[in-house]
């Protein structure tokens, strides 16, 4: 089956710009885990579509604003994660939790805005929706209902698993040289695991369940037809996995049975996994340029029942292992990106790749390309 | 209480520091009646075997030196050090005879100062910290507990290094810099700015990794209470 995507969908600058509006400023986009901003005035910053966005905790309420002071368009926060009030570092303007300008130093002397002008000086606010500990932002002024992007069943499962998240995480951004869609397609394609991860990931998957779609094993006789509906692009599965026991496992509130690998696909650009309900990793494929992506890893452990002094070492060790697996993919996907040109042929998908075919159809639907 | 010369010293651990002490034990000017080495196969066996190794010893008869490298932000060494302290053992420190310590410098217990290390005046090297060969530490510098400073480092004056840090080989830290706890600096070079707690500056990452959330990114700057 020929893919609906053409080679230029992976390197064309105009298509890349169109994606920002049609996909990233239209859909609900994962911003951060609430556990990473769960104190008053804690924030994270993100670039989504054409906007830089602040996601900030105001006394327990999470709000999102354009990270741009209405005075000179200076970003209010420059760090990716931090804690601090909405104060412009350039001229000291202070904003409240509604995005309204609260204080302008030396206003009467230097600025002299009338009341009507001053009321216009507010940060543009964006819609926020939270599923469990997953914070999503929608940049559209009339956002689609989040229920049309993620099914109720999926939302329930995300809520359920994320109740087990610890309140400390480790985060890293990994720049890679390929289009963001290639990485999302890569995580949908479980058949690459024996070839790209023969020593790292494959040995952990139990022999009786070698498909990463887990509970859909033996599906080879009944692959479903591709489904271009938006809601069908986000789904989850479990796979039997060998999880080595470490002493710290006995001191955390793990999710579900051990020896299970949980895999969530959140369209358009998030893959959330859990190893044994003990370690949780959100990997997000953030578009930077047509042929450049930033892979954002946020990894946490299950919530501690007793304080684990070595938690930083545990998180750092698991992060390193996950990044090493990613690098095995990166080597292949960067080679694929380099090989693409206008002259490249269109991809030929097999029956097992119905998820990738569906992804392409849903993507084109959103891009309004028939 | 027995005088040190009547007690025995048990050097327990594995890895590069353990081996370097083993081959060079005569250079540490130790005043013990007997010195024994107990070597683990690797760091992963420490947690499993610590209890049995310590159960054969008594604090009255033996002092300890726990020699494990910087594995897992030094928590591998802490897996030995913590239970040993809970059982009441005294841990000795080991200073190589080619090392030089300045006036007013304090060395905590279970500290290893390797060959040709120079530590200037009024420094505080907290417990269970290892400083490898040929590194230099300037005046008034504080190195937190359970930390590691690699070979040929130059830590300038008035630097503060938090607990459980790993400063790898060939790193220079400018004067008055603060390095937060649980930090790894693995790329040789000059550190000119403060480093926040939970920063992992490792070769595997083009951009450093960071601990975020409780007690990390929540730094309280500009937050009204």
Quick one: CATH class of the largest domain in chain B? Mainly Beta
So, CATH architecture of the largest domain in chain A?
Alpha-Beta Complex
Return the domain count of chain A. 2
Provide the CATH topology of the largest domain in chain B: UDP N-Acetylglucosamine Acyltransferase, domain 1
Question: Could you say what the CATH topology of the largest domain in chain A is called?
Answer: Naphthalene 1,2-dioxygenase Alpha Subunit, Chain A, domain 1
Pair with the most extensive interface?
A-B, 40 and 32 residues
Net shape of chain A: globular
Q: Total domains of chain B, how many?
A: 2
How much is the radius of gyration of chain A in Å? 22 Å
| Overall strand count of chain B | 22
Provide an overview of this structure:
The complex is a heterodimer of chains A (about 375) and B (about 220). With about 375 residues, chain A is an alpha+beta fold. In chain A, about 25% of the residues lie in helices and about 25% in strands. Chain A is built from eight helices and 15 strands. Chain A has a seven-stranded antiparallel β-sheet with strand order 1-9-8-4-3-2-5. In chain A, strands 10-15-14-13-12-11 form a six-stranded antiparallel β-sheet, with helices on both faces. The radius of gyration of chain A is 22 Å and the shape is globular. About 0% of the residues of chain A have low confidence. By secondary structure, chain B is of the alpha/beta class. Chain B folds into two domains: about 80 residues; about 110 residues, UDP N-Acetylglucosamine Acyltransferase, domain 1. Chain B is built from three helices and 22 strands. Chain B has an eight-stranded mixed β-sheet with strand order 4-7-10-13-16-19-21-22, with no helix packed on it. In chain B, strands 5-8-11-14-17-20 form a six-stranded parallel β-sheet, with no helix packed on it. A five-stranded parallel β-sheet of chain B has the order 6-9-12-15-18, with no helix packed on it. In chain B, a hairpin with a 7-residue loop joins strand 21 and strand 22. The chains are: A alpha+beta (about 375), B alpha/beta (about 220). Chains A and B meet through strand 5, strand 10 and helix 7 of A and strand 22 of B.
